[in-house]
Amino acid sequence: MELPKVGIIIINWNSFDLTHLCLKSIESINYSNYKVFLVDNDSSDDSLQKLVSEHPWIIPVVNNENLGFTGGNNSGIDIALKNGCEYILLLNNDTQVEEDFLSILVDKITSDNSIGAVQPKIYYEFDRSIIWNAGGRYNPVITKPSTIGENQIDNGAYESSFESDWITGCAFMFRSSLIREIGYTCELYFYGCFDDVDYSLKIRGKGYRLFFCADAKIYHAVGMASKSKTQSKEGVLKPFFHYLVTRNNWFLIRRHTRVVNIFPTIIYQTYNFIGHTIYFIYKRRFKKLKAYVHGYYHGIVKPLNPKKLNHTHYIQLYK
């Protein structure tokens, strides 16, 4: 019997080295029926040309502007659907994979029609004994997602697969038929943060289950796009990261918080806001404070319409 066809969506934006390593690791996987759709978000260097030269088997998808993580993924998903892919895997370009990871994910998602999406166990690339993500939990009372296993040494606590509340966009595999039921990923979020929680909740809202697959393993060079190359008084993370994460958090709240949970969510977010503000002031990171407050405000007041948001303006403002 022929294996299901999997479309792997990888986004590149001026990142030859990371994307090249990711593609090299994929070349060694033991699953045969897959296509890699490399989405280039209007790179200003020659990384796309170099990647196509090094990996001529990939299918390039070229965007004429930076559509971010969500828009870039959607353009790749569209091409994957046209190529007849039965399953879609959104995979970060700063990952490297084990040879059997895709086979394990496919075996799990095809084992039960009630499973809508799956993810692997994800380790830090800098230390492959430390877990970055082993699934997610979601507290609807305060609209708070949290990561399971983060920063824990892999001591055997997460050796069994289990149902997860949400799946990380770092390696998010789902049935392509879900596009007809719930649509594409939400382009409000732009940057890869909370868009995965949003899509997970939409999948669960249709009655599907999500699973963490303990035996499927990959490694993640976490947050390379959001980090500065040098340490400054503002720290390592770029201010735009704080703007987008804070804004996106409120977008998630506005899209998914039930009326009964609005009050506890606002209380939690208020305490969270006070804590972050004190921290940035104490550290004298005033550019990050400005970005954080700006993101907090925009998350509350901006329209929930991606066409009315100028993401790139604020990325440039707080780069």
Observed structural traits:
eleven-stranded mixed beta sheet, Spore Coat Polysaccharide Biosynthesis Protein SpsA, Chain A, 15 strands, 10 helices, alpha/beta, globular, 319 residues, 2 domains, two-stranded antiparallel ribbon
Summarize the structure.
The protein is of the alpha/beta class and 319 residues long. Helices cover 39% and strands 25% of the residues. Strand 2 (34-41), helix 2 (47-54) and strand 3 (59-63) form a beta-alpha-beta unit.
The number of domains is 2
CATH topology of the largest domain: Spore Coat Polysaccharide Biosynthesis Protein SpsA, Chain A
| Share of β-strand residues | 25-35%
The assigned CATH architecture of the largest domain is Alpha-Beta Complex
As a whole number of angstroms, the C-alpha radius of gyration is 19 Å
Give me the count of strands.
Answer: 15
